[in-house]
Amino acid sequence: MKWNKAVSMLCAAAMTLSMLTGCGAGGGNDEPAEAAGADEEVSAEAKAPADIYDHEAIENAGDITLTMMVSGTAYENDFETEQLPNLVKEKWPNVTLEVTKLPDDNYYTSLKTKLASGECPDIILTQPMYAGQNSCYSMAEAGYLTPLNDLDAVEGRQDLSSVTYKGDIVTLTNSISILGCYYNKDLFAQAGITAEPQSWDEFLEDCKKLQDAGIQPIVMGDKDQYVLQFGLYQLAANEIYSKNPDYDTQLRTGDTSFTDEGTWDTVLEMYKTLYDNNYIDASQSLGYGASQAITDFIDGKAAMTFDGSFNATALTAEGAAGAFERGYFPIPGKEGVYTATCLGAGYSIYSGSDYVDECKELLDYWMDGKSDVWKAYLSTGRTIATYGEGADSTPNYDLFKPFIDLLNEGKGFYWCNQAWPAGTETEMEALFSEMVGGQGTTVEDITQGMQDKFEDLLDD
Fold this sequence. Notes:
The chain has 17 helices and 12 strands. By secondary structure, the chain is α/β, with parallel strands linked by helices.
């Protein structure tokens, strides 16, 4: 896959769980009956000409009101609820944009109700693939989303397959989220480590050097079980998806299984090694929440922590240890280095809207990479943009650059549970916690539990 080179900082620690939901860690189980072909990329034949929709629909519409609903928490000078409506009014005085922003659970409930009643807002926030109760695949299968193939903003873009349903782009998103390993360069130097590891063996050797130097190698907040995804998905990118990018599609057809030898058993055994050697102290991590792990890292009490780009603000803050230089690298695999990434949430147009072309024109202006709306959107620091003016000069560019380089080389894979029925990952987390907590659970128990849960959820 080819990605444009650009990057910006996402939300800090308070946004972690919300971002995980957006990238596949939470949500409901309303999966489409047919998944085959959902991740097909748009072919040249399927993609409509760029001038298919009326590019002057707004100018010719007279006074209109467009509605939009998103999830999240509104802050002072909030982009969606304050800046965006004002900038739209400046661009088009005849347009009033009314935006409703709701906490995640309320958003899902309201969206379901509005779709059922046929009174859905014109523009809604949706998630890639099967992530969350507002997953674009589920909603496209139900006929709720307008194809966006004819938008100028999708021309020449990064791989959009995870927001493409049976040939139609149904969600417009410009951002990605990254999982990686934050590390303390001062503690690495103290242990005699001079370079980032390029293989799993090198990574384990570095952990041993840190431990021998009296430094806790890795701190994790496993009491919040969702953080187990932060390490496991990176290893899955290396050990599963690099070898079989169609693994998840084949899970749904029965051609692969979580119990297949050399797939999740390998990933789980590798991650378990970190606990077996006390590189991650299970007695501590199982009692720590995510925020406590972040605090320990910035306080200099551990050399590394696995976390996402969405927590960059918190993880680069100054703690009790004072200022020290951070680094960020992908956990390497046995035979190379790949990165676990996912497309972020984006915007879809309700198929029942009276203003489909007007909404397309608005989204095109917003996501053109140069408009005033684009600049305001990027300046929020809530997105790692994949194109556009100013994207490569935003905070933490150097921190994220190794991941962007891998993406440009085609060595990036979505967070794997974007393709799973929601609930599969929580089964994995619970069973893994039991295993490292000494309750007798085995790797085989985990893979079988994941497979059983996956099948049960598909049948619901």
